[in-house]
Amino acid sequence: MSLSEVKQSTQERMNKSVDALKTNLSKIRTGRAHGGILDHVLVEYYGSPVPVGQVANVTVVDARTLSVQPYEKNMVGPVEKAIRDSDLGLNPVSMGDNIRVPMPALTEERRRDLTKVVRSEGEDAKVAIRNLRRDANDSAKKMVKDKEISEDDERRLQDEVQKMTDKHVAEIDKLVAQKEAEIMTV
Predict the structure, then answer these.
(1) What are the recorded GO MF terms, alphabetically (predicted)?
(2) Which residue, of 52, 70, 102, is where some domain finishes?
């Protein structure tokens, strides 16, 4: 593996870690309705668990209400049950072949708990970034040991990887701060 391959691989993997954090943060509810909140809710569909978005149309009615309309009438009950049983604390109401999902207002205590969850997710992402930095530095040390690159090249690679790490950690901090502000906004 060459220096440029190590840099490129590390960069791609760090970007994937940040993307994974964005995905995880989007699943944490903020009190405002958005269709993505039901993305990880799974519904039993002919014996297979599938995401709600594959068996129903999820739309935002207003700031505090979602509308879920299953594509098949016989799926109203299972979709409603899956939403109720999810860890989101939502209480869907069936209205014929449509399901309304009101978003309850978050209490101050629940908001603080959610900010702790957000910080934890951010810290996990930072650990992943630091592990990638360590892997890249180990690769550089191995290349020096195998006499593939010089120690100067190793030092340059370590500096560049550190800059990548700092950039991604700063991005993670920014994402966490944004999500905390979003959660704490009443």
Answers:
(1) ribosomal large subunit binding
(2) 102
What whole-number distance in Å separates Cα of residue 70 and Cα of residue 169? 41
Structural domains in the chain (count):
2
98 shares its domain with 111: no
Interatomic CA distance for residues 106 and 153, integer angstroms: 53
- CATH code of the domain covering residue 51: 3.30.1360.40
Q: Which residues contact 100 (CB under 8 A, 6 or more apart)?
A: 61, 65, 66, 67, 68, 92, 93
Residue 118 exposed, middle or buried by CB count within 10 Å (0-12, 13-18, 19+)? buried
Do 133 and 160 belong to one domain? yes
Q: Are residues 120 and 170 in the same domain?
A: yes
Q: How far is CA 29 from CA 34, 75, 182, in A?
A: 9, 25, 10
Identify the domain containing residue 81 by its residue range: 35-102
pTM listed for this prediction: 0.70
- State the Cα–Cα distance between residues 77 and 165, nearest whole angstrom: 47
Instruction: Between 32 and 13, name the one with better pLDDT.
Output: 13
Q: Are residues 122 and 178 in the same domain?
A: yes
Q: What is the mean pLDDT of residues 104-124?
A: 86
Joined tokens for residue 136: 């890249």
Beta bridge partners of 100: 67, 93
